[in-house]
Prior knowledge:
Radius of gyration of chain A: 19 Å
Number of strands of chain B: 19
Strand order of the largest sheet of chain A: 1-2-3-4-5
Shape of chain A: globular
Oligomer: heterodimer
Helix content of chain A: 40-55%
Order of helices and strands of chain B: HEEEEEEEEEEEEEEEEEEE
Amino acid sequence: MKRIALFAAFMIAAALPNGADAITACKLQKPDRDIRKFFPESTGYKTVVSSLKEAGGETLIKEFEARLGDKLDKKYEPADLEHTTYVVLKGEKPIGYVSGVNQKGQFGAMQVFTALDLEGKILKVSYQRVVSPHAKALKTEETLLQFKDLTLGDFYLNAKKAAALRSPNEKSAVDFKATVRAVRKNLIYADFFNLDRKYDKQFHEIKKEK
Amino acid sequence: MRKPLWTLTYAACMAAAAFAHAEGTASGELYLAAGGARADNELVSSLRAAAGIEVVQILATESGDWATAALQLRYAHTQNLAMDNRFMQRSGDWGAEIHDAYINLRGLNGRANLRLGRFKTPFGLNPVIDFHRELIPSLSMSNGIPARRWGASLNGQLDSFDYEAAVLGGNQRNPFDKKAGEWTASARVQPYSDGVMQYGVSALWKHQNGASIQDGEQRAAFDLQTVLFAFNGTIEPRLELSVGQRNGKRLYAGEATAVRPMDPWRLTVSARAHQDAAWAIASLRREFSGGPLSFAWEAAFTQELTDLRRPALLMLLHTAF
């Protein structure tokens, strides 16, 4: 009984509120089917788990925030949150990447996934979770096709294509803005972890101009 | 084979997998649940304390992921067990519990996978919702359906639906116990949906050795989950219904639940019933994290509607790291 009492005391002390609300890592719930939908020619995929904190600590987190142009939300985007990338394979040859992020939307957490080719160009964007009364408008092909062929470089240089992204209607503007932020986050993760910082050159160019 | 030997064997396999090319997660947990209920004009208490680990490893070669291995263990002290507001008598000993211990081998690019080991029975919402860190178990668990058993299943994600069909042994602890006397076949199908509404249909057939085919137990179930927008937020309704028979006696069970996330709290109200009783349940939960730890508090009040002398109060503290 004494052991139980000690255990209980420890649990109560540990559970005193002292931090942000918990959020779980963003992984595909049905990876087998979803990867086949993104890449019908794929024969498999390799799951790679990383986190900003483990990969580079505070320095990498600051670099990430500079490229995002915004601070990471401690609740939805904590630095130690695991980030999952699916390296899509045809035989043993990589043919693309799929990854997703959590994003705070107007009505709660969203989960936005992007499929990229090996150069970091967007092939497709999709929602795994979007809790919004405007979800139907956000999920239309017309809305999501706007992202096709964009790269992280387009976001850094604010080129015509990235600047032309439009919400399907006024009511869904907050959630669409959140979606754009989520796509940009996915692209930065891919640039850091898969593309050997291919788009850092554009980032430094725009930084110099400013 | 004895239970500790199984645990060690599986732990050794997991360790070997960790040294091979593997990605995955490992976490630990501390779990403390306490409850009190009125039963036959007496107050009965329950206490459950546990420390556990959970390891999920994805095994891969150059041509991709080929298996997922999972191990979920708890070392628990249980003094009476709270199930709804009926408390089952248990002695207050510490003991090891195996929750999940399986390997799921990918086949046909995820269309036909083979799962071996101890895993959730594919029936109703049991395999869909993770109740491991929650206070109130699923309806299936409290209605005579084994939550987990040793066995094998064929499962997969096809373009238009997910499926899992399993054959499970009758002994909770030893998968090769021929004297266990029963085995269960169970299957669940969930059509593909890219919207917020998801539903599934399940069937279960429990067979007792030596009994005729008509004896034993057969059940069919329907489950549904969705999200509605109301009162400046969301409400997440869940529904689970099952019908069947056991040794000629009609069985039915149903549960309707509504979850209201109220950042940072979560309120759940539900009504459940089966052939012998009905309950109303309300619970309040708060989850938060601090550094590498995450915490959950949950308090639940349950009232048996068919016997108003049986109210119960349950509380949970859960820490994961």
